[in-house]
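thread: overnight batch results

M.L. [08:02]
morning all. the overnight job finished for the chain we discussed friday. pasting input first so we're all looking at the same thing
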Amino acid sequence: MATIELTAPDGHVLSAHRSDPPGRPLGAVVVVQEIFGVNDHIRAVTDRFAAAGFVAVAPALFDRVQRGAELAYDAAGTEAGRDLAWNLPMDQPITDLTATADLLAEEAGGAAAVATVGFCYGGMLSAAMASRRARHLGAAVAYYPSMAAQLLVKDQPHIPLLVHLGALDPRVTPDDGAALAERWPEAEFRSYPAGHGFNCDLRDDHHPEASALAWDRTIAFLTTHLEQEA
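M.L. [08:03]
and the structure it wrote out:
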C-alpha cells in the first residue's frame, strides 16, 4: 500500500493509492472513486482487490480542482462532492483514468489485463471508459453508475461490462437501469434488494449481503475476462 503520483498526457500530476497483491497478479484494476474522493472506503476497496490477487490503483480524480479531497458521507460532504464531480469536465477524469490504465498495462503485459471498477460517479466513468477508451482495457465494472442513463446516451461498451444496480436506489432508479439495459444489450446487469451505495460500509444504505454477492460476481467477472501475461 502506497501513495504514488501519476502524470496524465496533458502534464497534470495526480496522486493515487496503490496496493499490490502478495503473489503473481491475476490482472490489474483501476478503482474509480465516488463523489467523496479517494477516502478510507476507496482505499479499503483498493486494498481488497490486492488481497484478491490484483494490482489495484485508485487515482485521485479531484486533484485537478482540489488536491487531497476526502469528503464525509453526510449532507455537507454530498453537496461538496456533487459540486466537484459534476462541474469537472468529463474528459479530464477520463484522461486521468486512461493514464492509470496505461501505466498498469505496461506492467501487466497489455491492456487486456486491466479493468476499471467504479462506484456511483466512478461507476458512470467506468462505463464511459468501456465505450470511449476500450482499447486501453480488457473489462469494466460499474456499481450504481450515477447519471449514466442521462450522460452516456451515445456510449456503447466495446469490452465486457458488468453493471451492479440497487432495486431500491433513488438515484439510479429502476427506470434508469432499464434504460441502460436496453441501451447496452451485451452488458451483464445484476440487481440487488438495496439502495444507492450499498457496497460502502460507511454509508447508511450499506447492504452487507448485496455487497458480498456483488463482490464475488465482480471477482469472477474479472477473472474470466482479464487476460494474464503469459
